[in-house]
Amino acid sequence: MRIIRDHKYVAPEDRGASAAIGNFDGVHLGHLSVIDLARQEARRLGAPLGVVTFEPHPREFFAPGAPPFRLMGREARAHRLEKVGVARLYELNFNAALSSLGARDFARDVLADGLGLRHVVIGEDFRFGKGREGGAADMERFGAEMGFGVTLAPLLSGTGGQVSSTAIRTALSDGRPRDAAAMLGHWHRIEGEVVGGEQRGRELGFPTANMSIAGLHPPRFGIYAALVDILDGPHAGSYHGAASIGVRPMFGENRPNLETYIFDFSGDLYGADLSVALVEFLRPEENYDSVETLVAQMDADCARARTILAAI
């Protein structure tokens, strides 16, 4: 997959795609339905399959001090889009210049002249242009004028209602990762680099890989059965484990992070990139009255997680 970040500098081989447009936070089943429509047009036209998205997320640009809401960072989103067959990721820099474009200017300057798209697919509720002035009917009109086809994708509903990033965030906040996975079409994963920690897990007999969750919507704090992919380095591969998300109240910490204990693993993971999938919520984060009680509970958590993961 090729990543293009500036619509003003696009190589000839990166033009002419059939592209789905949106933020694609989580790359859930609703997003995949939009991408699949773009895929159908790409095959019909003999064109690359593309996705047009924005970085930072427009919500982050307009409200930088708001609480974290993203389900995945830019790298995790790119990994997921590549897995579903996207060949051109137009990850456009969302800045003051782009945000100030009106709907017609966005369609002409970015989609038609800049990226040279042959076809675009948008959700029927898609809004674009300064002040969200443009809608689906406007995109169809601009496409007819500017020479690109337009397909409107209907909103996707699941058994629990409309599939959306908001509904997925709610499921994760409630400690329902399986419900989130049903809407995502895959396990909810947190990806990032392993960073140095306080070594407390190692001292307790449970060495953990520590990862920041800064900028991401925090799932319910507590312990999870987890699937772990080490994405690079000498230990690359897939493993089972137990993950803790929270602030470690027993040790007076207050910055949320993710700590993952990988079963039957020995090795140095500092600096490696991990992808941790939350499978099942085991219990809330708690403050124990002794280290011995904590260790006994961790033993029980790991035994339960092993049983759950063996059944997947």
3D structure, described in words:
With 312 residues, the chain is of the alpha/beta class. The model has no long low-confidence stretch (mean pLDDT 92). Helix 5 (103-114) crosses helix 6 and helix 7 (165-173) runs antiparallel to helix 8 (177-184). It has helices at residues 29-45, 58-62, 74-83, 96-99, 103-114, 136-146, 165-173, 177-184, 200-203, 291-310; strands at 2-4, 18-21, 49-55, 88-93, 119-123, 149-153, 157-158, 161-162, 188-193, 209-212, 222-230, 237-246, 257-262, 273-284. It has ten helices and 14 strands. The protein has two domains: 2-155, Rossmann fold; 179-310, Riboflavin kinase-like (Elongation Factor Tu (Ef-tu), domain 3), CATH 2.40.30. A hairpin with a 2-residue loop joins strand 7 (157-158) and strand 8 (161-162). It starts with a strand and ends with a helix. The strands form three sheets. A six-stranded parallel sheet has the order 1-4-3-2-5-6, sandwiched between helices. A six-stranded antiparallel sheet has the order 9-14-11-12-13-10. The longest helix is centred in the C-terminal third of the chain and has 20 residues, at 291-310.
Can you name the CATH architecture of the largest domain?
3-Layer(aba) Sandwich
Number of strands: 14
Helix/strand order? EEHEHHEHHEHEEEHHEHEEEEEH
**Coarse structural class:** alpha/beta
CATH superfamily of the largest domain: HUPs
Look at the structure and give the mean pLDDT.
92
Number of helices: 10
CATH class of the largest domain: Alpha Beta
Determine Rg (CA atoms, Å): 22 Å
- Largest pleated sheet: 6 strands, parallel
Instruction: Indicate the CATH topology of the largest domain.
Output: Rossmann fold
Strand proportion, as a percent range, falls in: 25-35%
Q: CA-to-CA gap between the ends?
A: 30 Å
